[in-house]
């Protein structure tokens, strides 16, 4: 056998290998050049793309420029003007710092740089191609820098083959640019595609870098359905927009997370956003959002990914809870209704500017909670600037109306979300009329000029949710199946069922683990639905091991809500009078009759007074 020989790789090959990690495709070149322009404090950036960026990418800025004496070295590996020692990483806010972008790009493409440093009299040009570095020569230009990258991967055919069509590569570039448009409202962006102007996005007046501005999120939130979000805590601040809950849909939507001006992929933050929405969104539904976090540099490591698309937090939990809290606060504030507000009635298309009044009531509520120990302390403050008037379309407005009601109901109680049974029963009083409309709502008229509208499915879910939860304690409502039901599950699903056997046992599902799944022996009573489907949905909930470990209580709640949903009367079902009365009676006995376990409202209370007012019958 031939003796293996060690070869020392040439600098060129080493660079090309490294380039594979940093430069995957044309969009990665655009990203590196944009980062450099931003670090150079550009106010205007022009991006020219030819042939999907495979033929040519040119990015010009009006930033500080590169001094002549540095030009000769910028193509060398590990030359940077941004970082001196490893300690600097703890305070660094710049986009680049490894000094490798330009050197790697020159190893896989032809590069020309023209730059004029602010203080230099003239501009200079330098190039790098297969023949090496060119002589520096004078080249007239205004303050700033242009970097032109041609024939990407010309010398690595294998990588070139890996690229997609021009259209696809251009789309990927555009998707990247769209992110920068969001967090750099202070920069004027010009985009040119194959010699034609594609976009001209002037800077937003008086907008600060790193703030998300309404002008630049219009595509993401139609009809102004974006709710401004703000947070300022120790070491973390946040701004951006989250969607009004009515904007939810089943498919993945535009979701952007930025940390210190960098677009990043961070599933934990996305999850935290959804946790903030928990009470406001049907399970599994998606919403769009744009979230920009500014985190003290020593609390976040940006040096964990070759393209800096991922970060590591010193204390991820702290970040996630801040996000969750900020989202929840925004939703509560925007969707809350202040019963003491001037006219009290709710008009369609009315603007949802949050009055200082309702601000106070929120603060008061918060305080009550804090004193009960439900909200952890800590120094944080919410700024309300920019949360100006946001008007909603009719659909949103009706969703809001019903949400408003629940909030109002909650605020009128003593500050706890639990309701005493007696109070509710007393309040429900004697009804004089009960009927169903549209096969989904129960309307109840009371003798004392009140009118309730109950969402039959939400109400049934609430009733079943509380009934099944009670099983945990008193096992009253469990039935034994005559013949055990055999259900098959995958290995992971079986592991989950084994891990949580006791919990399921307590809520009424007793089973034995078998080779292919489980033999189910008991279920909660009145349980006649597709059990297998229900389990599958539960596994989806538990899909995320982090949630599971962190917060089994929440998962339990979600599982119970899923079960409740499957057992409950659907909307669209005709009810007879006795069924309506039974739903009403059961609902008022619930601990929290006002919303279904997913957080949607269950009752809308109206009064004759309010109805009269709507008809301007004020005498
Ligand atoms: P890094 O950004 O990590 O410092 P790069 O290889 O991207 O490394 O750039 C090397 C150096 O070239 C930068 O540190 C900066 O001094 C200079 N430079 C590159 N692009 C620009 C630009 N558009 N404007 C001003 N200086 C630039
Ligand atoms: Mg750089």
Automatic annotation (TrEMBL):
Sorted keywords for this record are: DNA damage, DNA repair
- What SMART domains does the entry give? DNA_mis_repair, MutL_C
Gene Ontology annotations for the cellular component aspect, listed alphabetically: mismatch repair complex
Residue ranges constituting the DNA mismatch repair protein S5 domain according to the UniProt record:
217-332
Q: Where is the MutL C-terminal dimerisation domain?
A: 433-575
Q: Does the keyword DNA damage apply?
A: yes
Q: Does the keyword Cell membrane apply?
A: no
Which Pfam families does this one have?
Answer: DNA_mis_repair (PF01119), HATPase_c_3 (PF13589), MutL_C (PF08676)
Which terms in the Gene Ontology molecular function aspect does this entry carry? ATP binding; ATP hydrolysis activity; ATP-dependent DNA damage sensor activity; mismatched DNA binding
- Tell me the domain of life: Bacteria
Instruction: Report the function annotation for this chain.
Output: This protein is involved in the repair of mismatches in DNA. It is required for dam-dependent methyl-directed DNA mismatch repair. May act as a 'molecular matchmaker', a protein that promotes the formation of a stable complex between two or more DNA-binding proteins in an ATP-dependent manner without itself being part of a final effector complex.
Family per UniProt? Belongs to the DNA mismatch repair MutL/HexB family.
Question: Know the name of this protein?
Answer: DNA mismatch repair protein MutL
From what organism does this protein derive?
candidate division WS6 bacterium GW2011_GWC2_36_7
Name the gene.
Answer: mutL
